[in-house]
């Protein structure tokens, strides 16, 4: 059986959930080989538990100093040695860029933002703001596919997970975009937006006060999101924006409070399993796709729901 | 300094976007300059305005109607435009598009290429990286803030866990997000001036490219099927009165065993 390279994200020995999803999907196609930029540490065991036959650690100072071109170069070298049946990455800004560069280097087709991948490499994508489902397949070279987080349920399937090191040479050409400063952001303490089972988002209708949205979200252990109108107004940080130019989320339940439902917002949440809309305007377009629509003032509805659930 | 702004002509997102029978995006519906590329044009214009001697050239790869996208860029203030249009291009994927753009950039020889963060139709967000890879230039992408100082370009990127600054020597490829600052509306003067600006039409031959390498047949991936999302069954709607809305919301979560 041929190998499938999986670009694994491991931080402080913890493997990200999207990585476990990739390993699960990769097993349909071949034997997953996890590639870790840096050290896998205790994460190696997890990678093995989810099916990685091997864990290949690649290390080079360039990975931290420069924007993604070095990672793309390293992967191209690994792919040359492994001749994989496919290369899978989690959809993120950096990974999509890596995928694009890799496709040029290897002269292979690339599909981004797939929500599923079958054994024969056929991918499923959700396009045009989630209004269409597309099935596509790479027809030239080794398929490079980025998979959206929350697309596949991770399933354990223990494999050897033998750790090895690979050495790569990074050219000067790949060291063009230097990271000159990094300012870490404080963690919100809430579930990660793209991974959360429930997301509560606020829009212009919050009037700028997100405390009710946050209080409700915390009561039900949900992540908090925002519309671009709320972000543009400076009410909530951009990293929490849901939509075309923000995050795509696909939780069990998406609660939109004070959000009208512009196509660009829908693009980021339309595939949620259940949609709840709280809006005082009964004509708000988002009601069209709501499983539960509450016509009312979010400043009343959210605190009332919070109160009930808190005392449950 | 020579700055290329890459702009794409896309179907209007607020209209009914469809697929053609061959699985390509139906371009018969009303289109426009991809909104996300307006930000690229805006940044190009701002850099040019702050430089002594700079020109902005808008470049697109697309069908006849794509000239509308160039027109908008010219109205906003770009100095000239290049329209790459060839029958052999229909159905070209990101890999092919980036190859055409790379050839065009090599011909124009700019110091800086500014792209949008993603096109609003395909939305892969990979063309800038592919273009940089083909040119052997650095790519600094997803800038929310863009500065050119001397021979260096730097951006600020607002990531999920960190905010970073990234810099590169020119020539470079840059992409900017919709957080990079409002794009200007064309002024009356700009609209009048655009009529006299030069638009060059190039075919693949003009770039020494072979038509066989492009189009649907040469694409690296194939769309096997497209299906519209099934319409959603109507949900329940309640009007909040004396807390009934909050109760309905709480019940929905509890009864669905979501919490
Ligand atoms: C290229 C491009 C990309 C974009 N990307 C995104 C994106 O990623 N994400 C995104 O969200 N948008 C995006 N947009 C913007 C989008 O078009 C809308 O402008 C935006 O989503 C509107 O946000 P909103 O629904 O919060 O505001 P509005 O449209 O103003 O809606 C506010 C709603 O709140 C309701 N309301 C007001 N007060 C209350 C109250 N007290 N209680 C309950 N309801 C109340 C109102 O009835 C109204 O329906 C993009 C636009 C473009 C052009
Ligand atoms: N056909 C095209 N013509 C000109 N520029 C393009 C074209 N396709 C993509 N681009 C540029 O590349 C960016 C990213 O596009 P994409 O990878 O298709 O999401 C866009 O915002 C444009 O700046």
Compact description:
The complex is a heterodimer of chains A (312) and B (259). By secondary structure, chain A is an alpha/beta fold.
Give structural notes:
The complex is a heterodimer of chains A (312) and B (259). With 312 residues, chain A is α/β, with parallel strands linked by helices. Chain A is 27% helix and 28% strand. Chain A is built from nine helices and 17 strands. In chain A, the strands form three sheets. In chain A, strands 9-8-7-10-6-1-4-5-11 form a nine-stranded mixed beta sheet, with helices on both faces. In chain A, strands 14-13-15-16-17 form a five-stranded parallel beta sheet. A two-stranded antiparallel sheet of chain A has the order 2-3. In chain A, helix 4 crosses helix 5 (93-106) and helix 6 packs parallel to helix 9 (298-310). Chain A starts with a strand and ends with a helix. The mean pLDDT of chain A is 96. By secondary structure, chain B is α/β, with parallel strands linked by helices. Chain B has a single domain (2-213), classed as Rossmann fold, CATH 3.40.50. In chain B, 26% of the residues lie in helices and 29% in strands. Chain B contains six helices and 14 strands. Chain B has helices at residues 35-49, 67-76, 94-108, 127-135, 188-194, 244-255, and strands at residues 2-6, 9-11, 31-33, 55-61, 80-84, 112-116, 139-143, 145-149, 152-158, 162-169, 172-176, 199-202, 221-228, 236-239. In chain B, strands 7-11-6-1-4-5-12 form a seven-stranded parallel beta sheet, with helices on both faces. In chain B, helix 2 packs across helix 5 (188-194) and helix 3 (94-108) packs across helix 4 (127-135). Chain B is globular. The mean pLDDT of chain B is 93. The chains are: A alpha/beta (312), B alpha/beta (259). At the A-B interface, helix 5, strand 7, strand 9, strand 12 and strand 16 of A face helix 3, helix 4, strand 7, strand 10 and strand 13 of B. Strand 17 (292-295) of chain A pairs parallel with strand 14 (236-239) of chain B. The complex binds flavin-adenine dinucleotide (FAD) and adenosine monophosphate (AMP). Residues 6-8, 34, 36-37, 40, 60-62, 94, 97, 115-116, 118-119, 122-128 of chain B line the site of adenosine monophosphate. Flavin-adenine dinucleotide sits between chains A (203-205, 227-230, 241-246, 258-260, 262, 264-265, 268, 278-281, 284, 297-299) and B (35-36, 120, 178).
């Amino acid at each position: 059986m041929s190998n499938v390279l999986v670009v694994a994200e491991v931080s402080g020995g913890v493997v990200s959930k999207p990585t476990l999803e990739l390993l699960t999907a990769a097993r349909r196609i071949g034997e997953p080989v996890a590639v870790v930029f840096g050290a896998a540490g205790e994460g190696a065991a997890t990678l093995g538990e989810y099916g990685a036959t091997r864990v290949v650690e690649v290390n080079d100072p360039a990975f931290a100093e420069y924007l993604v071109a070095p990672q793309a170069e390293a992967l191209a070298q690994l792919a040359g040695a492994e001749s994989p049946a496919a290369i899978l990455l989690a959809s993120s800004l950096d990974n999509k860029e890596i995928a694009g560069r890799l496709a040029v280097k290897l002269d292979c087709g690339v599909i981004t933002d797939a929500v599923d991948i079958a054994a024969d490499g056929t991918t499923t994508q959700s396009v045009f703001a989630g209004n269409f489902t597309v099935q596509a397949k790479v027809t030239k070279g080794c398929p490079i596919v980025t998979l959206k987080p929350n697309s596949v349920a991770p399933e354990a399937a223990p494999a050897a997970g033998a750790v090895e090191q690979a050495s790569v040479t990074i050219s000067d050409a790949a060291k063009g975009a230097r990271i000159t400063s990094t300012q870490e952001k404080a963690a919100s303490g809430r579930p990660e937006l793209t991974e959360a089972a429930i997301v509560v988002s606020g829009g212009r209708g919050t009037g700028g006060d997100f405390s009710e949205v946050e209080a409700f979200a915390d009561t039900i252990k949900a992540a908090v999101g925002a519309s671009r109108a709320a972000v543009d107004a400076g009410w909530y940080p951009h990293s929490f924006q849901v939509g075309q130019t923000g995050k795509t989320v696909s939780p069990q339940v998406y609660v939109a409070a004070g959000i009208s439902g512009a196509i660009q917002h829908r693009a980021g949440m339309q595939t949620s399993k259940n949609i709840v809309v709280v809006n005082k305007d009964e004509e708000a377009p988002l009601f069209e796709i709501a499983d539960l629509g509450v016509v009312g003032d979010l400043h009343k509805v959210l605190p009332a729901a919070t109160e009930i659930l808190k005392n449950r | 300094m020579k700055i290329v702004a890459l702009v794409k002509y896309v179907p209007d997102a607020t209209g009914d976007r469809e697929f053609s029978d061959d699985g390509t995006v139906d371009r018969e519906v009303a289109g426009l300059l991809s909104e996300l590329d307006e930000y690229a044009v805006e940044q190009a214009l701002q850099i040019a305005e702050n430089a002594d001697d700079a020109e902005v050239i808008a470049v697109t790869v697309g069908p006849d109607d794509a000239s509308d996208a160039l027109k908008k860029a010219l109205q906003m203030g770009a100095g000239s435009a290049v329209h790459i249009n060839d029958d052999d291009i229909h159905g070209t994927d990101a890999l092919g598009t980036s190859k055409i753009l790379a050839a065009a950039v090599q011909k124009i020889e700019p110091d800086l290429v500014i792209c949008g963060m993603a096109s609003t139709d395909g939305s892969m967000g990979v063309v800038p990286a592919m273009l940089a890879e083909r040119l052997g230039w650095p790519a600094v992408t997803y800038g929310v803030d863009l500065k050119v100082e001397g021979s260096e370009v730097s951006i600020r990127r607002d990531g999920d866990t960190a905010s970073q600054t990234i810099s590169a020597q020119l020539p470079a490829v840059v992409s900017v997000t919709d957080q990079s600052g409002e794009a200007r509306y064309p002024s009356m003067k700009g609209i009048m001036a655009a009529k006299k600006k030069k638009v060059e039409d190039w075919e693949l031959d003009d770039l020494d490219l072979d038509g066989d390498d492009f189009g649907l047949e040469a694409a690296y991936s194939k769309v096997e099927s497209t299906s519209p999302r099934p319409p959603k069954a109507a949900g329940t709607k309640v009007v909040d009165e004396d807390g009934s809305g909050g109760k309905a919301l709480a019940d929905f979560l509890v009864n669905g065993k979501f919490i």
